[in-house]
Specification:
Strands 1-5-4-2-3-6 form a six-stranded mixed β-sheet, sandwiched between helices. Strands 8-7-9-10-11 form a five-stranded mixed β-sheet, sandwiched between helices. A four-stranded mixed β-sheet has the order 13-12-14-15, with helices on both faces. The two termini are 31 Å apart. Strand 12, helix 9 and strand 13 form a beta-alpha-beta unit. The longest helix has 19 residues. By secondary structure, the protein is of the alpha/beta class. Helix 1 packs across helix 4, helix 8 packs across helix 11 and helix 13 packs antiparallel against helix 14. It has 14 helices and 18 strands. It folds into three domains: 159 residues, Alpha-D-Glucose-1,6-Bisphosphate, Chain A, domain 3 (3-Layer(aba) Sandwich); 200 residues, 3-Layer(aba) Sandwich (Alpha-D-Glucose-1,6-Bisphosphate, Chain A, domain 3), CATH 3.40.120.10; 75 residues, 2-Layer Sandwich (TATA-Binding Protein).
């Protein structure tokens, strides 16, 4: 049986394993049963309830129907938030005393993909141990010939409409912006990636006084993340310059990440946003232990800059769940990834793009400087990130020639950078990240490492970007 959960829930192509109707229903049933078996279930007065939401993909409603069928078979009601950002599920699940939360989304992936991601009753992403138990139970059913535990005809009448609670989430977001500040006089470009933030984000910034130029706010089920949003910020950059805006922000499809661009149209990634907020929180006495959590993909220049400012770094593997675990373990208040996933633990249990935008805009307002001044706060070490499409994710530790070449590259860099190779947890990609003294050297290194990998694994050259 193929692996079910990746680094961020279940991902795939709807209609193909694991996103077949029978498997989705069984995942819902097994997950709900497992959580209920662990003790007195949370409920809001009328039995165990599961909060569900989705992004704007056309495949979302059908996956929702399958999930509802599985939850009903487990004796649970479903409250449907409708189209909503992933962090809205994280925020509302504990406040509605739900057994758990589930979002139907493939985040930054193209529209033809979709996914399922669970949150526990406290609003944290479901832990790997629980995911393993769900996988094992599903595997046992498969081996015993019990696939499709929920009858295909067992469709419930539908979920309860919970869209009114989206207002609670919007009110929460607004409450995180300092009451002494507003966005009056600011012209802001907002790209919602044709995704889940298209209703809430522009209206929220306008309510704070900003003049909003909205992009990516016409989803049709097929255009989420298509040439827009955090992965394709070019339209945002051009709109900022064209409209003489003060800055702009773009989200990904489920709005759990944010990328900014300054008044000149130059980008600020998650590293730059964390740098800005870390300094602000430290100044306000709110940066717990004077530490931040970063993944191994954060730029070497950021680590050096923060150290000079008296801010320590806890380094963790890629994945916002790893960031969350470190924040909880050490009792810290800020962490995130260069990709734009930033966790402000004082407010949220997970990465939230709109929350990140509000905190960044608060820091910008308090500084009285243009965003470009903060973009240049630390000198980034030259970095290359090469994404190589692969046919099979061959274990990297079993490739001696590739390992030898990596060691040779590390000797040439001589402590002035780093080399990381890892497979994407959500796409068939090998990610090659190299930092070093100059761009041409590390670009050539990345190309040679990709060639060595393909030759040693016997795979054909895929698309790179």
């Amino acid at each position: 049986m193929e692996k079910l959960f990746g680094t961020d829930g279940v991902r795939g192509m709807p209609g193909k394993y694991p996103l077949t109707a029978a498997t989705i229903r069984d995942i819902a049933l097994i997950t709900a049963q497992l959580i209920r078996s662990r003790g007195p279930s949370r409920n809001n007065g009328s039995g165990p309830v599961i909060l569900m939401g989705r992004d704007t993909r056309g495949s979302g409603p059908e996956i929702a129907r399958c999930l509802i069928a599985g939850f009903k078979a487990a004796g649970c009601r479903t409250m449907d938030l409708g189209v909503a950002p992933t962090p809205a599920i994280s925020y509302l699940t504990p406040r509605l005393k739900a057994l758990c939360g589930v979002i139907i989304s493939a985040s930054h992936n193209p529209a033809q993909f979709n996914g399922i991601k669970f949150f526990n009753g406290d609003g944290f992403k479901m832990d790997p141990q629980t995911e393993d138990l769900v996988e094992k139970e599903l595997s046992r059913d498969c081996e015993a010939g019990r696939r499709g535990k929920v009858s295909a005809g067992a469709w419930p009448a539908g979920a309860e409409n919970a869209s009114k609670y989206a207002g609670w989430y919007a009110d929460f977001l607004r409450s995180t912006f300092p009451p002494t500040l507003d966005l009056n006089g600011m012209r802001l470009v907002v790209d919602c990636a044709q995704g889940a933030s298209y209703r809430i984000a522009p209206a929220l910034f306008e309510s704070l006084g900003a003049e909003v130029i909205a992009l990516g706010c016409s989803p049709n089920g097929r255009n989420i993340n298509a040439g827009c949003g955090a992965l394709f910020p070019e339209a945002l950059q051009k709109a900022i310059v064209r409209n003489k805006a003060d800055c702009g922000v773009c989200f990904d499809g489920d709005a759990d990440r944010a990328i900014f661009a300054d008044e000149k149209g130059m980008l600020l990634d998650g590293d730059a946003l964390i740098c800005l907020s870390a300094q602000r929180l430290r100044r306000l006495g709110l940066l717990k232990s004077d530490k931040v959590v970063l993944t191994v993909m954060s730029n070497f220049g950021l680590l050096k800059f923060l150290g000079e400012k008296g801010i320590s770094v806890v380094s963790v593997p890629v994945g916002d769940r790893n960031v969350t675990e470190a924040l909880e373990r050490e009792g810290l208040s800020l962490g995130g990834e260069a990709s734009g996933h930033v966790i402000f633990r004082s407010f949220s249990a997970t990465g939230d793009g709109i929350l990140t935008a509000l905190q960044t805009l608060a820091a910008l307002r308090e500084s009285g400087k243009p965003l470009s001044a903060h973009r240049r706060s630390f000198k980034a070490v030259p970095q290359v990130l090469k994404n190589l499409a692969v046919e099979n994710k061959v274990p990297l530790e079993g490739l001696p020639r590739l390992k030898e070449q990596i060691r040779g590259c590390e000797k040439k860099i001589k402590g002035q950078g780093r080399i990381f190779l890892r497979y994407s947890g959500t796409e068939p990609l090998l990610r090659i990240m190299i930092e070093g003294p100059n761009q041409s050297m590390i670009k050539a290194m990345a190309r040679r490492l990709a060639e060595t990998y393909l030759k040693e694994t016997g795979q054909k050259a895929g698309k790179t970007h």
